Amino acid sequence: MGGKAEKGTPKYIANKIKAKGLQKLRWYCQMCQKQCRDENGFKCHTMSESHQRQLLLFADNASKYIDEFSKEFADGYVELLRRQFGTKRVNANKVYQDYISNRDHLHMNATQWETLTEFVKWLGREGKCVVDETEKGWFVAYIDRDPAAVAAMEAKAKKEKMDKDDQERMLEFIQKQVERGRKEGDEGTPSYTEFKRESSQERISLSLNLKRKADDKKPELLTSALKSKSKEESSSKKVKEEPSRKKNALDEIMEMEQRAREKNQRRDYWLTEGILVKIVTKSLGEKYYKRKGVVEKVIEKYGALVKLVDEAARIKLDQNHLETVIPSPGRSVLFVNGPHRGAKGVLKEIDTDNFCCLVEITNGSQSGRVIKDVQYEEISKLAA
Fold first, then answer.
1. Is the pLDDT of residue 26 over 80?
2. How many Å apart are CA 149 and CA 115, to the nearest integer?
3. Whole-angstrom Cα distance, residue 154 to residue 282?
4. Taking Cα atoms as reference points, which of 25, 59, 54 lies closest to residue 42?
5. How confident is the model at residue 191 (pLDDT cuts 50, 70, 90)?
6. SS3 of the chain
7. What's the pTM?
């Protein structure tokens, strides 16, 4: 009997076992997507009418098919690299072996690349991966260009800069004090030089006036008394200056501890009604990117209903897609995070190098107090 074997028969099972797994590449037809098990089957396939029709289609526009096959192969390879290995550095051949382990994969001989080395070099030129050659072969590392991942990395770097360890700040402060003390010590130490004669014939004479007149004693006593007084005054000044210097150092340490306590009072949510915010996500399209709006309503602490400034549109956004707006000096601001949360103030100065501001509180029990080193994330401009 001709045709296929019936299901469940030994012949059917034998055919399934033979078809399982990868077959030889030279007996595979990419245009027809058919895998043959031996040379005779591949020869019969190439002489078939369906294969001849596919060859005619390929001959009409060969570059189109090759480009499609190349794109499909590159996308599949890069997607496997991204999902399985992430941004880790891995051997390119290992990724390729994992890719071709799928029985329905697209073969490289149907693409524009003849070898895996040429394909890896192309990935490096296109900026899709970081490639380097070693004694063990070519290695690749996926470059994650996802906007969400890039924004997360930038936020993490910004947070690390803000969350600088207090111990490091204390060490920097102590180092500055030590350097200051060394400079002051270098200025007060005398410099000793070697005694030299101008000529060898010169004599050294010492005159000791042991006999003094009685009249000369009084002025000497007066001058010695004046000298002793001046010494006492200078010593008293030094004693007074030392506590003041120590007091200044203690004040700086107390201020640093106060800043650390204030940092611990921050919350992970900052949205407040009535403040001006800026949209920093591109998921809504370029139309709303970098647009400013007013928070009309806070939804479950982390969401907000934002009304755009220049039009009547209202958008519901998460706080990760928004950032605070820092106005020019002299404008009113609202503390949205930190120990002074909820207080209103006036922006006095902006320190762009350290990403902080100087703000004077204008309401409450602390009205008139000037707060230094206020981070950009702690304040936002009040809506008019």
1. no
2. 32
3. 15
4. 25
5. low
6. CCCCCCCCCHHHHHHHHHHCCCCCHHHEECCCCEECCCHHHHHHHHCCHHHHHHHHHHHHCHHHHHHHHHHHHHHHHHHHHHHHHCCCEEEHHHHHHHHHCCCCCCCHHHCCCCCHHHHHHHHHHHCCEEEEEECCEEEEEECCCCHHHHHHHHHHHHHHHHCCCHHHHHHHHHHHHHHHHHHHHHHHCCCCCCCCCCCCCCCCCCCCCCCCCCCCHHHHHHHHHHHHHHHHHHHHHHHHHHHHHHHHHHHHHHHHHHHHHHHHCCCCCCCCCCEEEEECCCCCCCCCCCCEEEEEEEECCCEEEEEECCCCCEEEEEHHHEEECCCCCCCEEEECCCCCCCCEEEEEEEECCCCEEEEEECCCCCCCCEEEEEEHHHEEEECC
7. 0.35
Of 311, 331, 321, the C-alpha closest to 381 is 331
Residue 65, judged by CB atoms within 10 A of its CB (0-12, 13-18, 19+), counts as: middle
Q: How crowded is the C-beta side of 178, counted as CA atoms within 13 Å?
A: 6
Residue 332: strand pairing partners: 346
The pLDDT score that the predictor gives to residue 277 is 92
Mean pLDDT highest for which of 10-24, 45-59, 102-116, 125-139?
125-139
Start-to-end Cα distance in the chain: 90
- Taking the mean position of all CA atoms in its chain, how far away is CA 261? 25
Note the pLDDT tens digit of each residue in 298-314.
988 889 999 888 888 88
Q: 22: which 2 tokens?
A: 């990868």
Q: Quote the CA–CA distance of 179 and 173 in Å, as a whole number.
A: 10
Q: What is the mean pLDDT of residues 316-325?
A: 89
Sign of CA dihedral 41, 46, 52, 56: positive
Q: What is the mean pLDDT of the chain?
A: 77
Is residue 196's pLDDT more than 90?
Answer: no
